[in-house]
Amino acid sequence: MIAPDRLFQLEAGQKRRKLALTFGELERDIAGIAETGTAYSFPRLSRKAYIRTVADILLKDPKLAPEAAVELRRLLAVENFDERRVCNSARNALLAIIGTFPAEWDLVIAPHAAEAQDNAKRVYFPNVSVYAEDIRSPFNLGSIFRTAEAMGCDRVFLSPLCTDPEHSKAQRSAMGCIQTLGYTRCTLDELPRDKPVFVLETGGTDIADFVFPKEGTVIIGSEELGVSPEALARAEYGRVSIPMTGLKASLNVGVAFGILMQAWVSALRRFGNER
Question: What is the reported pTM?
Protein backbone atom coordinates (compact mmCIF):
# COMPACT_ATOMS: atom_id res chain seq x y z
CA MET A 1 0.00 0.00 0.00
CA ILE A 2 1.50 3.28 -1.11
CA ALA A 3 1.79 6.49 0.92
CA PRO A 4 -0.62 9.16 -0.43
CA ASP A 5 2.14 11.74 -0.95
CA ARG A 6 3.97 9.33 -3.27
CA LEU A 7 0.91 8.98 -5.50
CA PHE A 8 1.22 12.60 -6.59
CA GLN A 9 4.67 11.80 -8.02
CA LEU A 10 3.31 9.17 -10.43
CA GLU A 11 2.24 9.85 -13.99
CA ALA A 12 -1.50 9.56 -14.66
CA GLY A 13 -1.67 6.02 -16.04
CA GLN A 14 0.62 4.58 -13.39
CA LYS A 15 -1.26 6.48 -10.68
CA ARG A 16 -4.59 5.00 -11.77
CA ARG A 17 -3.22 1.46 -11.82
CA LYS A 18 -1.65 1.90 -8.39
CA LEU A 19 -4.84 3.40 -6.98
CA ALA A 20 -6.91 0.49 -8.33
CA LEU A 21 -4.55 -2.00 -6.68
CA THR A 22 -4.60 0.03 -3.46
CA PHE A 23 -8.39 0.08 -3.26
CA GLY A 24 -8.42 -3.67 -3.90
CA GLU A 25 -5.94 -4.25 -1.08
CA LEU A 26 -8.01 -2.05 1.21
CA GLU A 27 -11.16 -4.03 0.40
CA ARG A 28 -9.41 -7.25 1.34
CA ASP A 29 -8.07 -5.70 4.53
CA ILE A 30 -11.56 -4.50 5.50
CA ALA A 31 -12.99 -7.95 4.77
CA GLY A 32 -10.32 -9.59 6.92
CA ILE A 33 -8.69 -11.45 4.03
CA ALA A 34 -5.62 -9.29 3.40
CA GLU A 35 -2.88 -11.06 1.46
CA THR A 36 0.54 -11.37 3.04
CA GLY A 37 2.23 -7.98 3.30
CA THR A 38 -0.80 -5.95 2.22
CA ALA A 39 -2.61 -5.38 5.53
CA TYR A 40 -3.14 -1.71 6.36
CA SER A 41 -0.14 -0.48 8.36
CA PHE A 42 0.19 3.33 8.22
CA PRO A 43 0.51 4.40 11.89
CA ARG A 44 0.05 8.12 11.26
CA LEU A 45 -3.33 7.72 9.55
CA SER A 46 -6.35 5.67 10.49
CA ARG A 47 -7.53 3.40 7.70
CA LYS A 48 -10.68 5.50 7.33
CA ALA A 49 -8.61 8.68 6.97
CA TYR A 50 -6.33 6.98 4.44
CA ILE A 51 -9.34 5.85 2.37
CA ARG A 52 -10.72 9.38 2.36
CA THR A 53 -7.33 10.75 1.28
CA VAL A 54 -6.84 8.38 -1.65
CA ALA A 55 -10.50 8.77 -2.67
CA ASP A 56 -9.94 12.54 -2.81
CA ILE A 57 -7.00 11.89 -5.15
CA LEU A 58 -9.29 9.92 -7.46
CA LEU A 59 -11.91 12.68 -7.38
CA LYS A 60 -9.33 15.03 -8.91
CA ASP A 61 -8.85 12.72 -11.93
CA PRO A 62 -10.20 14.53 -15.03
CA LYS A 63 -11.22 11.21 -16.61
CA LEU A 64 -13.41 10.14 -13.71
CA ALA A 65 -16.99 9.72 -15.00
CA PRO A 66 -19.31 12.43 -13.58
CA GLU A 67 -21.80 9.84 -12.28
CA ALA A 68 -18.97 7.92 -10.58
CA ALA A 69 -17.76 11.14 -8.94
CA VAL A 70 -21.27 11.94 -7.68
CA GLU A 71 -21.61 8.46 -6.17
CA LEU A 72 -18.18 8.57 -4.52
CA ARG A 73 -18.86 12.00 -3.00
CA ARG A 74 -22.23 10.77 -1.75
CA LEU A 75 -20.61 7.81 -0.01
CA LEU A 76 -17.88 9.97 1.54
CA ALA A 77 -20.38 12.54 2.81
CA VAL A 78 -21.61 10.13 5.47
CA GLU A 79 -19.77 10.80 8.74
CA ASN A 80 -19.15 7.15 9.54
CA PHE A 81 -18.94 6.07 5.90
CA ASP A 82 -18.89 2.46 4.73
CA GLU A 83 -15.18 1.91 4.05
CA ARG A 84 -15.60 -1.16 1.89
CA ARG A 85 -18.34 0.38 -0.25
CA VAL A 86 -16.22 3.50 -0.85
CA CYS A 87 -13.25 1.36 -1.88
CA ASN A 88 -15.36 -0.83 -4.14
CA SER A 89 -16.95 2.17 -5.84
CA ALA A 90 -13.57 3.85 -6.31
CA ARG A 91 -11.87 0.70 -7.63
CA ASN A 92 -14.58 0.00 -10.20
CA ALA A 93 -14.56 3.63 -11.34
CA LEU A 94 -10.82 3.33 -11.88
CA LEU A 95 -11.17 0.08 -13.79
CA ALA A 96 -13.66 1.80 -16.08
CA ILE A 97 -11.12 4.59 -16.78
CA ILE A 98 -8.34 2.06 -17.38
CA GLY A 99 -10.58 -0.01 -19.64
CA THR A 100 -10.41 -3.20 -17.60
CA PHE A 101 -13.45 -4.85 -16.10
CA PRO A 102 -13.31 -7.60 -13.51
CA ALA A 103 -14.56 -11.10 -14.19
CA GLU A 104 -16.63 -12.71 -11.44
CA TRP A 105 -13.65 -14.60 -10.06
CA ASP A 106 -11.63 -11.38 -9.76
CA LEU A 107 -14.13 -9.70 -7.47
CA VAL A 108 -13.11 -9.08 -3.87
CA ILE A 109 -15.42 -11.43 -1.98
CA ALA A 110 -14.86 -12.40 1.63
CA PRO A 111 -15.27 -16.10 2.40
CA HIS A 112 -18.08 -17.23 4.64
CA ALA A 113 -17.33 -17.77 8.31
CA ALA A 114 -15.64 -21.06 9.13
CA GLU A 115 -18.64 -22.38 11.02
CA ALA A 116 -20.74 -22.10 7.89
CA GLN A 117 -18.54 -24.80 6.35
CA ASP A 118 -19.53 -27.39 8.97
CA ASN A 119 -21.57 -29.85 6.92
CA ALA A 120 -23.03 -31.40 10.08
CA LYS A 121 -24.95 -28.17 10.70
CA ARG A 122 -26.51 -28.04 7.25
CA VAL A 123 -30.23 -28.23 6.66
CA TYR A 124 -30.66 -30.29 3.50
CA PHE A 125 -32.85 -32.80 1.68
CA PRO A 126 -31.53 -36.35 2.07
CA ASN A 127 -30.69 -38.15 -1.19
CA VAL A 128 -31.37 -35.07 -3.32
CA SER A 129 -28.40 -34.77 -5.66
CA VAL A 130 -27.13 -33.22 -8.87
CA TYR A 131 -24.97 -34.90 -11.50
CA ALA A 132 -22.89 -32.39 -13.46
CA GLU A 133 -22.11 -33.98 -16.80
CA ASP A 134 -19.04 -32.63 -18.60
CA ILE A 135 -19.29 -29.05 -17.32
CA ARG A 136 -16.26 -27.32 -18.87
CA SER A 137 -16.25 -23.89 -17.20
CA PRO A 138 -14.74 -23.73 -13.68
CA PHE A 139 -16.89 -20.67 -13.01
CA ASN A 140 -20.07 -22.55 -13.95
CA LEU A 141 -19.09 -25.54 -11.84
CA GLY A 142 -18.43 -23.33 -8.81
CA SER A 143 -21.80 -21.68 -9.34
CA ILE A 144 -23.48 -25.10 -9.43
CA PHE A 145 -21.89 -26.03 -6.11
CA ARG A 146 -22.97 -22.73 -4.58
CA THR A 147 -26.57 -23.23 -5.72
CA ALA A 148 -26.58 -26.88 -4.65
CA GLU A 149 -25.46 -25.94 -1.14
CA ALA A 150 -27.85 -23.01 -0.84
CA MET A 151 -30.85 -25.03 -2.01
CA GLY A 152 -30.21 -28.03 0.22
CA CYS A 153 -28.71 -30.67 -2.05
CA ASP A 154 -27.31 -33.67 -0.23
CA ARG A 155 -24.59 -34.58 -2.72
CA VAL A 156 -22.87 -33.49 -5.91
CA PHE A 157 -21.79 -36.04 -8.49
CA LEU A 158 -19.35 -35.13 -11.27
CA SER A 159 -18.81 -36.95 -14.55
CA PRO A 160 -15.25 -38.15 -15.30
CA LEU A 161 -14.78 -35.32 -17.84
CA CYS A 162 -16.18 -32.54 -15.67
CA THR A 163 -13.72 -29.70 -14.99
CA ASP A 164 -11.66 -29.77 -11.79
CA PRO A 165 -13.51 -28.34 -8.76
CA GLU A 166 -10.13 -27.47 -7.25
CA HIS A 167 -9.51 -24.93 -10.03
CA SER A 168 -9.08 -21.47 -8.53
CA LYS A 169 -11.97 -20.03 -10.56
CA ALA A 170 -14.31 -22.81 -9.42
CA GLN A 171 -13.24 -22.26 -5.82
CA ARG A 172 -13.79 -18.54 -6.17
CA SER A 173 -17.32 -18.74 -7.52
CA ALA A 174 -18.29 -21.58 -5.15
CA MET A 175 -17.57 -19.46 -2.06
CA GLY A 176 -16.48 -22.43 0.05
CA CYS A 177 -19.37 -24.70 -0.98
CA ILE A 178 -17.10 -27.24 -2.67
CA GLN A 179 -15.52 -27.95 0.71
CA THR A 180 -18.91 -27.97 2.43
CA LEU A 181 -20.58 -30.41 0.07
CA GLY A 182 -17.68 -32.42 -1.25
CA TYR A 183 -18.19 -34.38 -4.46
CA THR A 184 -17.96 -37.82 -6.01
CA ARG A 185 -16.67 -38.49 -9.50
CA CYS A 186 -18.58 -41.28 -11.15
CA THR A 187 -20.00 -42.50 -14.43
CA LEU A 188 -23.70 -42.46 -15.22
CA ASP A 189 -23.84 -46.19 -14.51
CA GLU A 190 -22.45 -45.56 -11.03
CA LEU A 191 -25.27 -43.25 -9.96
CA PRO A 192 -27.45 -44.78 -7.22
CA ARG A 193 -29.77 -47.36 -8.80
CA ASP A 194 -32.32 -47.22 -6.00
CA LYS A 195 -33.17 -43.52 -6.50
CA PRO A 196 -34.94 -41.77 -9.40
CA VAL A 197 -32.81 -40.04 -12.03
CA PHE A 198 -34.12 -37.29 -14.31
CA VAL A 199 -32.60 -34.71 -16.64
CA LEU A 200 -32.92 -30.96 -17.11
CA GLU A 201 -33.10 -30.54 -20.88
CA THR A 202 -35.24 -29.03 -23.62
CA GLY A 203 -38.11 -31.04 -25.06
CA GLY A 204 -39.40 -32.35 -21.75
CA THR A 205 -42.26 -31.73 -19.34
CA ASP A 206 -42.84 -28.10 -18.40
CA ILE A 207 -41.25 -27.40 -15.02
CA ALA A 208 -44.63 -26.19 -13.75
CA ASP A 209 -46.20 -29.58 -14.52
CA PHE A 210 -43.32 -31.90 -13.70
CA VAL A 211 -43.89 -34.19 -10.70
CA PHE A 212 -40.61 -33.97 -8.80
CA PRO A 213 -39.46 -37.04 -6.87
CA LYS A 214 -38.98 -36.97 -3.09
CA GLU A 215 -35.43 -38.22 -3.63
CA GLY A 216 -33.17 -38.61 -6.61
CA THR A 217 -30.61 -37.08 -8.91
CA VAL A 218 -31.02 -34.45 -11.59
CA ILE A 219 -28.53 -34.53 -14.47
CA ILE A 220 -27.44 -31.22 -15.97
CA GLY A 221 -25.43 -31.23 -19.18
CA SER A 222 -22.50 -29.42 -20.70
CA GLU A 223 -22.62 -25.78 -21.75
CA GLU A 224 -22.23 -26.63 -25.45
CA LEU A 225 -24.01 -29.93 -25.99
CA GLY A 226 -26.47 -30.32 -23.14
CA VAL A 227 -26.99 -33.77 -21.66
CA SER A 228 -25.65 -36.74 -23.60
CA PRO A 229 -27.80 -39.43 -25.25
CA GLU A 230 -26.49 -41.79 -22.57
CA ALA A 231 -27.73 -39.45 -19.85
CA LEU A 232 -31.15 -39.23 -21.48
CA ALA A 233 -31.30 -43.02 -21.52
CA ARG A 234 -30.21 -43.22 -17.87
CA ALA A 235 -32.88 -40.73 -16.78
CA GLU A 236 -35.70 -43.22 -16.45
CA TYR A 237 -37.74 -40.83 -14.28
CA GLY A 238 -38.09 -38.32 -17.10
CA ARG A 239 -37.09 -35.00 -18.58
CA VAL A 240 -37.99 -31.57 -17.21
CA SER A 241 -37.75 -28.33 -19.20
CA ILE A 242 -37.84 -24.62 -18.44
CA PRO A 243 -40.20 -22.80 -20.83
CA MET A 244 -38.60 -19.80 -22.52
CA THR A 245 -39.97 -17.14 -24.83
CA GLY A 246 -36.82 -15.30 -25.91
CA LEU A 247 -35.39 -15.42 -29.42
CA LYS A 248 -32.34 -17.31 -28.18
CA ALA A 249 -34.29 -19.52 -25.76
CA SER A 250 -31.06 -20.27 -23.95
CA LEU A 251 -29.92 -20.11 -20.33
CA ASN A 252 -26.54 -20.42 -18.67
CA VAL A 253 -26.29 -23.89 -17.12
CA GLY A 254 -25.82 -22.46 -13.62
CA VAL A 255 -28.87 -20.22 -13.98
CA ALA A 256 -30.97 -23.09 -15.34
CA PHE A 257 -29.91 -25.30 -12.43
CA GLY A 258 -30.94 -22.57 -9.98
CA ILE A 259 -34.42 -22.34 -11.51
CA LEU A 260 -34.74 -26.12 -11.41
CA MET A 261 -33.70 -26.34 -7.77
CA GLN A 262 -36.15 -23.65 -6.69
CA ALA A 263 -39.01 -25.64 -8.23
CA TRP A 264 -37.75 -28.95 -6.78
CA VAL A 265 -37.28 -27.47 -3.31
CA SER A 266 -40.83 -26.06 -3.37
CA ALA A 267 -42.11 -29.57 -4.05
CA LEU A 268 -39.82 -31.12 -1.41
CA ARG A 269 -41.09 -28.76 1.25
CA ARG A 270 -44.60 -29.86 0.51
CA PHE A 271 -43.39 -33.42 1.07
CA GLY A 272 -41.88 -32.30 4.39
CA ASN A 273 -38.65 -34.28 4.08
CA GLU A 274 -36.18 -31.48 4.82
CA ARG A 275 -33.54 -32.38 7.41
Answer: 0.72
